[in-house]
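Thread amino acids onto this structure.
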């Protein structure tokens, strides 16, 4: 159990205690629910920009950042509302650009059809069959909603060939707008490790991800220190754990991935402090603050 009281709960990012110079914001669960933007998200971003704050979006999306920017624009989160974006897909692609000798050139692809072009333009090609692959490129399940267990036999064959796996999204699950959980690439990576395979992951909560964030932010604020960054996310295990380890301040948005466990019925509901206490004790991660929603009011 924690010896400290539960983190303070705020209904708005306008709380003076949350004011800082730079913000690192998760996307899914903070700005949108996987289908629609949260109605107050764009206005909150606009207010932060009006105040001259620096905003970097940080997503475990297994695709290049320009693809995420385009998707956000389609739901009303225009690119003038933030300074930049970094995705786990960017980090995976960057590593592949530097690591051809390390990884080989032929990959066995796991993921949605729309994400297949992650390594396009780099000297890699998709293997025609598992036996011809040098490594597994894991971006998730091939169909949204599939269980990682569907891939056990396939991953067992890959393990028999001692293929390393590159995981471009460490998230184990996402929560859709209807409250259902969906297995992500991280769930496949966990299964592969359990089978005895080796995995290298990119994204939250891994420390190099936050080092890359700080480097990007210092391009705008050269003297920025980690404690002057507020990371806002909906997952204790990825967003908050990783940011705390990097020395960032943190705020958990209650209504995302943990909303059901917190007993929240609607987006923006204020969580019960005792439920927050129990949740953070169970996971072993204590944010500096909790937000009912990413909003300015």
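Threaded sequence (297 positions):
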């Amino acid at each position: 159990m924690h010896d400290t009281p539960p983190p303070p709960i705020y209904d708005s990012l306008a709380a003076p205690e949350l004011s800082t110079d730079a913000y690192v914001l998760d996307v899914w669960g903070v700005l949108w629910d996987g289908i629609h933007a949260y109605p107050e998200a764009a206005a909150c971003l606009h207010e932060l920009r009006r105040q001259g704050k620096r905003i970097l979006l940080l997503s475990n999306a297994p695709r290049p950042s320009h693809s995420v920017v385009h998707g956000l624009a389609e739901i009303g989160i225009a690119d003038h509302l933030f300074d930049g974006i970094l995705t786990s897909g960017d980090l995976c692609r960057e590593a592949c650009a530097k690591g051809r000798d390390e990884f080989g050139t032929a990959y066995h692809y796991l993921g949605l059809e729309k994400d297949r072009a992650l390594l396009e333009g780099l000297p890699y090609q998709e293997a025609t069959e598992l036996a011809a692959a040098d490594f597994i490129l894991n971006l998730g399940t091939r169909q949204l909603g599939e269980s990682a267990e569907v891939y056990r036999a396939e991953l067992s064959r890959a393990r028999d060939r001692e293929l390393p796996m590159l995981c471009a999204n460490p998230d184990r699950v996402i929560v859709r707008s209807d409250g259902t959980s969906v297995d992500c690439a991280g769930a496949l990576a966990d299964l592969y490790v359990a089978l005895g395979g080796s995995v290298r992951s990119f994204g939250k909560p891994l420390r190099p991800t936050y080092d890359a964030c700080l480097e990007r932010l210092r391009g705008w604020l050269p003297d920025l220190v980690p404690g002057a960054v507020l990371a806002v996310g909906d997952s204790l295990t990825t967003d908050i754990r990783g940011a705390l380890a990097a020395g960032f301040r943190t705020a958990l948005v209650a209504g995302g991935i943990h909303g059901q466990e917190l007993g929240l019925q609607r987006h923006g509901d204020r969580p019960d402090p005792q439920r927050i206490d129990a949740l953070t004790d169970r996971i072993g991660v204590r944010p500096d603050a909790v937000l009912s929603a990413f909003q300015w009011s």
